[in-house]
Specification:
Elements (H helix, E strand, L loop, with lengths): L3 E3 L3 E7 L2 E10 L2 E10 L2 H22 L6 H18 L5 H19 L9 H9 L3 H20 L28 H10 L6 H10 L3 H5 L6 E6 L2 E8 L22 E6 L2 H14 L16 H15 L7 H14 L4 H7 L6 H7 L4 H14 L6
Antiparallel strand pairs: 1-2, 2-3, 3-4, 5-6, 6-7
Helix pairs in contact: 2-3, 2-5, 3-5, 6-10, 7-9, 7-11
């Protein structure tokens, strides 16, 4: 058997008299690939040839890294092209891309754009985060982390400083970012009766819909269901209405998992069905229709939301608080398993199972909601 002389870089293998095969690993465009070539001469000469190959690669690597990019250069060179590609092939939603660009322009770029990627200081990052409110801090750190991930992949930095366990601020921009109790949501629902956006509000408060998703539901996508003695209304989410009133393409939501069914239990599901039936009788297309075959806008939703919360006598919060409130009461009031709640919100479970295998059906969602509300029925005060 040919004898090999190994090192951490590579090895010299004798294959015949005065014939050796040199093997080594080489960084090619950010990926390590195995290389080899034959060498004729003595073993000592073969080992010297392998050492020269190593020295040359080390020099090339040092030359490439003489210019350490700034965060802005890394953003433009690696992060932005990757994000644009994901946007084009549907792996990244337009609104998500827009939000990340907003965080770059407002928070990440101004603070870190001109800093070398190997000169980021953890104490300075912590100070930066502490000067923001909770949501912008989380989103901005996530973007910085993604940028530095590319730097780590290409061996520009040894450690991604944005991946350290920083203390995130807990203060919100305003009281509008909290959550409502189930009783408060019910009061808002009653105050919203007759509102042109009533159906959308019911989908958000009692079905986990995002604002744009709640406005993008057509009447033909609403049906009835029953499980464990609980009557429910089911709405299929296939599209969304953007802030500028544009209607997205089918399936173009925040992520692929957002295409899902929303299950609204009684008594709010019964009211939702009444609203849908009336709209059908009026010849409308959308659950929240302008009257000319188009859905209402997010601006209209926000106006109606403010009126309903004021009439209900509850604290004024942004419409997104409805979805946050749904997650809270389903987990804590109704004691539904967290993983089920995540999937009903349109979130993917982590890992291979969440990405490829765990695909609950509409009927499974119906069973979960029916079981929960049969066990803990809501009693209107």
């Amino acid at each position: 058997m040919p004898r090999k002389m190994r090192s951490s870089f590579g090895c010299v293998q004798r294959i015949d008299k005065d014939v050796y095969r040199l093997r080594w690993w080489e960084d090619v465009a950010g990926e390590y690939k195995r290389r080899s070539r034959n060498f004729r001469g003595t073993r000592r000469e073969a080992e010297r040839a392998l050492a020269e190959i190593r020295a040359g690669l080390d020099e090339n690597r040092r030359h490439k890294l003489r210019h350490v990019p700034t965060v802005e250069e890394a953003f433009n060179k690696w992060w932005l092209p990757d994000a644009d590609t994901k946007l084009e092939d549907g792996r990244l939603a337009k609104n998500t891309h827009k939000c990340r660009m907003s965080k770059w322009n407002k928070y990440v770029g101004p603070r870190w754009g001109q800093v070398k990627v190997n000169e980021l200081d953890p104490l300075e990052i912590q100070d930066w985060l502490s000067g923001m409110t909770k949501k912008p801090a989380e989103d901005s750190l996530a973007l910085l982390r993604q940028i530095l991930d590319f730097c780590q992949i290409y061996d520009v930095v040894g450690e991604n400083m944005a991946r350290r366990p920083y203390v995130m601020p807990q203060n919100f921009k305003s009281r509008s970012d909290g959550a409502y109790t189930l009783d408060e949501l019910d009061r808002i629902a009653q105050a919203a009766e007759g509102s042109p956006c009533e159906g959308a509000m019911l989908l958000s408060m009692f079905g986990s819909a995002r604002t744009g998703e709640s406005l993008g539901v057509k009447l033909e996508e609403i049906s009835r269901a029953e499980s464990h003695g609980v009557h429910m209304t089911v709405a299929e989410v296939n599209r969304q209405v953007h802030s500028d009133a544009r209607i997205s393409e089918e399936g173009a939501l925040k992520n692929r998992q957002s295409v899902r069914a929303l299950v609204i239990p009684e008594p709010w599901g019964d009211r939702l069905w009444e609203v849908a039936e009336k709209a059908r009788a009026d010849g409308e297309v959308w659950l929240c229709d302008t009257g000319d075959g188009k859905p209402l806008s997010q601006n209209a939703y926000r106006r109606e939301w403010q009126r309903a919360t004021a009439a209900a006598g509850v604290e004024d919060k942004q419409p997104r608080a409805a979805r946050r409130s749904w997650e809270t009461f389903m987990r804590w009031d109704m004691a539904v398993d967290r993983t089920k709640v995540e999937q009903m919100m349109g979130h993917a479970l982590p890992g291979v199972t969440g990405a490829h295998y765990d695909k609950p059906t509409t009927q499974m969602f119906v069973e979960v909601v029916g079981e929960a509300f049969s066990r803990r029925p809501f009693k209107r005060k």
